[in-house]
Structure formats: structure tokens, C-alpha cells
Amino acid sequence: MEIVKLNLKRRTYNIIIGSNILGRLGKEICKLKLGDTAYIITNALIKNKYAGKLTKALKRSGIDVIYKTVPDSEQSKSIKISTQVIIDIARYDKKRRIFIIAFGGGVIGDLSGFIASIYKRGIPYIQIPTTLLAQVDSSIGGKTAVDLIEGKNLVGAFYQPRLVLSDVRLLNTLSKRQVLSGLAEVIKYGIIKDRQLFTYLERNYQDILDLEPGALEHIVARCSLIKANIVEQDEKEEKEIRTILNFGHTIGHAIEAASSYKKHTHGEGIALGMLAAVDISRRLNLINQSISQRIEKLIKLVGLPIRIRKLPLKGIINAHYHDKKFIGKKNRFVLLEDIGKTKIVVNIPSKIIREAILRIGE
User: Fold this and answer.
1) Is 204 a catalytic residue?
2) Is 266 a catalytic residue?
3) Residue 260 main-chain phi, psi, to 5 deg
């Protein structure tokens, strides 16, 4: 078991990473004095598989449990679902000290954190991520949001959890596609910040795909530490330090939005978005062909897509204008100078962006 501390002064919290550690949750919550009633937001699949174990861990510490299930899809990240859940919380919230547990993947985490941030102007919540993507990325750092038709994550807040507990045993029931979705974010961390992690993935990606606990703990701990260090320096993305975490996300989110969040998983979108960003970097002579080929080779080796079929070019172009990194009408991309080294570039010619998107559609 490893503990990564994300240091934000009074809002400091631990990220606990290990195998078969769900049972220690009640004790951790009691240490934090979060409340007496856990309102657990999850989906039906996770509830059916793990509710018994989670309930037992909480009740033996004297914590009451309420479950709320929402659909297991990006469509749950909406104003409509948020309102429904908030009304449900309010019905229970009488003579109780309620806190929220996000028990699921990135969708559940984003939705739960957003609700926690606005209900009563903020109540405590913790993250128990059950997907690789959530364990290495979305559960950490306090970004909470829901989507609009116009784009992904357009309504949200920075609101930190009080604890993140990443039990890699919870990943055993994931489909290969879900594992790959998370692996895309792991690759991202190697590309933007950690050459050694990138090399580790090149050599050990099969162990990760096979859900070998040691390999999973290693990458989850490494990614958690990288993200914690970045968030500590730039919690609200005001210094262009945290911005590098969005590598691949400008075009990746646009691909997701252009297909109404139905055609690609988040990780698949990000894999394609990273390839677009790598291609833009090469066209601007920031990196050479060998770096570009090395990144594309790893993405292809692990089984992530390197091309998008039936490319909705116009839809992707239109969606990418909603990217939150833009400054007015000027685009802003996280690009590469080397594996492990990024550069933020503003006002890239639209022709280069279009050519990079078209390349992943060939």
C-alpha cells in the first residue's frame, strides 16, 4: 500500500493506493470526522458487485449508508441528473451529517464532486474510483463538472475531495475496453512528465492489460504522485502548470462531443487527441518524426485506436472551439518538445489543426 499526500494546506488529503484495501475505509472516514451518513452515488453494476463489502466497511464504523444509482454513461453528467440527485439528498438530510461517496468511474466522480460542491454551498465528499482512468486521473485534483450539449465539462467547480481510496482489486471486473480507456491517461502522464514511466509502459503494458496487481499499483501510484505535484503548484489552472494535464484533451473532447459521447470512450478520444497534438507538434517542428512514431507505436501496441472512422470533421472543428483553454478567439494547445517535456502554444493556424485531425481520420 502507498499513500500520496496532496498538500493544499487546510484542504490537504491523502490518496491511498493498494490492493484489497476497501475494508479500511470506515476507519479512514472516522479519522476525518466527515459525518454520520454516507450518501453513495454509484451505478447499478458497481452496487451489485461491491455494495455488500462497502456497506460492511462503513457500518462497522458506525456510519449509516444510503445508495443512489445513476445510469452508467456520460449522459449522467447533466444538469438534469444533478438536480434529481440533489433533491434526493435533501429528502434524507434531516438531523443527519451527510457526506457523499463517489463510488464509480470518472462520470460518477465528476457528478458527485459537482453535487458536493453546490449542495448547501459545499459538503464533504470522498472518491473511491473503480476504473483505471479514474484512479490515475479524474478522482484526483478536485475538478468537478457536468456537460452541456455544446461541450464537455462546461459547468463545474474546483472542489477537492477529503480522501481518495484507489483499490486496484476493484479493477478486476473491468472490460478490456475500459482498461484501455484508463491506459490512455497513463500514457499521457508518461508523455507529458515522465520519460521513465513511458519506457515502463513500453516494456510492461501487457502486465497492465492482464491486471497484474503489482503493475497496477505502480502506475496508479506514479500517476497519482505526478498529478498531486502538479495540482499542488497550480490547483485552479491559473499558472499554466496544471494546463499540461490537458494534453490531447482539446481534440479528444471535441471527438467525444462530435459523436454525442456515444462512439468513443473518454480514453479512446484522448488517444486520438494525443495523436493530433503530436502531429501538430511535428508540423510546427517542435519534435522530430522518431518521437512521433514512438508515441503512435505505443498507443497502437496497447490496442487503442490510432484512426477514427467516418470522421465528422466539421463537428470536431466546431466542438473544439468550446475548449476552456482558448483565450477569446485564440486557440491554445498543449504540445510536445520531447517525451516528458511540454510547451503551450497559442494561435495555431487553423490549417495545421485541420490537417492533424484529417490525419487521424485516414
Assistant:
1) no
2) yes
3) 55, 30
Domains, the chain:
2-174 (3.40.50.1970), 177-210+247-359 (1.20.1090.10)
Candidate list 249, 264, 320, 332, residue with the active-site label:
249
- 304-314 mean pLDDT: 85
Dist. CA 68–CA 75, nearest whole Å? 16
The residue-averaged pLDDT of 12-32 equals 96
The pLDDT score that the predictor gives to residue 82 is: 97
Q: Is 121 a catalytic site residue?
A: yes
Torsion over CA: 280, 281, 287, 290 (sign) = negative
What are phi and psi for residue 306, nearest 5 degrees? -115, -5
The grid coordinates of residue 218 equal 505502480
Joined grid coordinates for residue 35: 459525518
pLDDT of residue 184 exceeding 80: yes
pTM of the predicted structure, to 2 decimals? 0.92
What is the pLDDT averaged over residues 48-57? 96
Question: Which one, of 200, 223, 361, 359, lies nearest residue 292 by Cα?
Answer: 359
- Identify which of 183, 356, 205 has the alpha carbon closest to the alpha carbon of residue 270: 183
Q: Shortest CA distance to 130 belongs to which of 112, 148, 156?
A: 112
Question: Which of these is catalytic: 152, 188, 222, 242?
Answer: 242
Lowest mean pLDDT among 151-155, 158-162, 294-298, 330-334: 151-155
237 as an active site residue: the answer is yes
Mean pLDDT value of segment 108-123:
97
Q: Among 227, 282, 283, 320, which one carries the catalytic annotation? A: 227
Q: Is the pLDDT assigned to residue 362 strictly greater than 70?
A: no
CB 281 within 8 A of CB 336: yes
The predicted model gives 296-325 an average pLDDT of: 86
Q: Is 322 a catalytic residue?
A: no
Q: What value does the mean pLDDT of the chain take?
A: 94
Average confidence (pLDDT) over 127-142: 97
Contacts by 76-82, CB closer than 8 A, 24 or more apart: 76/43, 76/107, 76/108, 76/111, 77/107, 77/110, 77/111, 77/145, 77/146, 77/147, 77/153, 78/146, 78/147, 79/146, 79/148, 79/155, 81/111, 81/146, 82/111, 82/114, 82/115, 82/146
